[in-house]
Each structure stands twice: as C-alpha cells, then as structure tokens.
Amino acid sequence: MHEYSLMEDVVSNLLESLRREGITRAGAVKEIVLRIGALDIHSEQSFKQAYEILVKGTLLEGSQLQLEIIPATYKCQACGYEGTVGVGEADGHQVEPVIECSRCGQPCVVIGGRGMHAIDLVVED
After folding, report:
1. Tens place of pLDDT for every residue, the chain, 125 residues?
2. What whole-number distance in Å separates Cα of residue 70 and Cα of residue 81?
3. Going by C-beta distance under 8 Å and a sequence separation of 6 or more, which residues neighbour residue 123?
4. Helices and strands in the chain: count of H runs, count of E runs
C-alpha cells in the first residue's frame, strides 16, 4: 500500500507537469526515470505495478518506469567508517534507523536513502 500511495503522488505530479508543458499527445512520454531512496521503497515490483495501474488511460500509458535506487549510508561516530546499508539491514519505517557498524560493531544512525531525488522524462518529439 505504501508504494501505491507514493506512486499516486508521483503520477499526479507528472501529469500536472505534462499539462503545464503543453504535452497532450498520448504516447509522447516513452520513459520515466525515478531516483528514490532505498528506505522509501519496500518492493520494486509493487512500485512498478502501482505505476502500471495508475497510468492506464493517461498521457503516461505505455511509458516505461525505470527505478534508480539510492542506497542508504552511515558514518560510524566511533571509528569513522563510512558504509552502505545493505538490503533489509535498516527498517525504513523508523524515523532514524540504527544499524551496527560493519567495522567496529558500534550502533550507527543511518543517513541518506530517503526521498525522491529526481524524475527524468524521456519524451518523443
């Protein structure tokens, strides 16, 4: 359900942007590239399914969704190690997820890996 409501906002904003730009031809948009933080997406497949459902009958129908997942990271305050959070290592539902440093074992607050960073449209002239 999380992916569906998030994608609802994305599709709504994309359609509004297309209207503002005067793009009204069905099939003009070939691809959507969405950069999203790893902690905000629980299932890539669910995200893509939500997209397919929501674009039916719109100017985006037939376009392909490409996801670029931005990993969550951490910096250990104890040893200074900086690392990437692996899939499933941090709970994206927590406001400030904490994981164990892979070097020294101390608790570290996860940084990054949240939000949508960019949306690129590939439009056929």
Report:
1. 578 888 999 999 999 999 999 988 888 999 999 999 988 887 889 999 999 999 999 999 999 999 999 999 999 999 999 999 987 788 877 888 999 999 999 999 998 888 887 788 888 86
2. 19
3. 23, 28, 29, 30
4. 2, 7
The b/e string for 64-98 (b: 16+ C-beta within 10 A; e otherwise) is ebeeebbebebebeeeeeebebeeebbebeeeebe
Task: Determine contact, residues 114/39, Cβ cutoff 8 Å.
Answer: yes
Query: To 10 degrees, the CA torsion angle through 54, 59, 65, 67?
Result: -90
Over its C-alpha atoms, the chain yields an Rg (Å, rounded) of 18
